[in-house]
Design goal:
The structure is a single chain. A 7-stranded mixed sheet has the order 1-2-3-4-5-6-7, with helices on both faces. The protein folds into 2 domains: 2-108, Trna Endonuclease, Chain: A, domain 1, CATH 3.40.1350; 127-170. Helices cover 36% and strands 24% of the residues. By secondary structure, the protein is of the alpha/beta class. It has helices at 2-12, 55-64, 77-85, 127-138, 147-154, 158-170, and strands spanning 16-20, 29-35, 38-49, 68-74, 89-92, 97-100, 105-108.
Length: 176
């Protein structure tokens, strides 16, 4: 989600940004925003959905690391209000941005959820896929069995074998 929100939303508004992995274990990362020659570094908390019971922890982090930014798929109006009252910026996956610091003001009201793109998932780590992987791990010779033998030994449908095999290869876990 972080990549999508940062790159798509900010690119749309001609804002250069670079997200970096955290150097501080308490935070999820840092975001360097460059807009019209002005550069500012934000400490980030990333949540799929921020709830009220999580706010105290966010406030503690924001007091410790300034300026602070919450990146989330969805924020409820009460949460947005509480963040703004504590001078914490936020970005949502629908395009909404609210960043207010001593040196900058950036407000964009989002309208849609086109920025959320589901990750492609293979069949390797489904329930059936894990049964086949377990079969391979317990006896490495099973990898050379026919699809029918693998399906019988793992107690899964034969149609899954090809998809599991392709998923393992695609994700770099197997060379068939």
């Amino acid at each position: 989600m972080t990549y999508t929100v940062i790159n798509e939303i900010l690119k749309e508004h001609k804002i250069n940004a670079k997200w970096e992995k955290p150097t501080i274990p308490e935070i999820d990362g840092t975001l360097n925003i460059d807009y019209n020659g002005y550069n500012e570094r934000f400490y980030d908390e990333i949540k799929k959905e921020l709830r009220e019971f999580q706010l105290n922890r966010v406030f503690e982090l924001a007091d410790k690391y300034k300026p602070f930014l919450v990146i989330s798929e969805n924020l409820f109006p009460r949460i947005k209000k509480a963040l703004a009252e504590h001078e914490i910026g936020y970005k949502e996956a629908n395009g909404t941005i609210n960043i207010e610091t001593r040196n900058s003001l950036l407000k964009v009201e989002g309208k849609n959820k086109n920025y959320i793109k589901p990750e492609k998932q293979g069949r390797a780590f489904t329930k059936a896929g894990l049964k086949a992987i377990y079969l391979f791990l317990t006896n490495e010779n099973n990898i050379n069995d026919t699809y029918r033998e693998i399906a019988n030994n793992a107690n899964i449908a034969i149609g899954n074998i090809k998809l599991i095999r392709e998923g393992l290869i695609e994700e770099g876990f197997a060379l068939w």
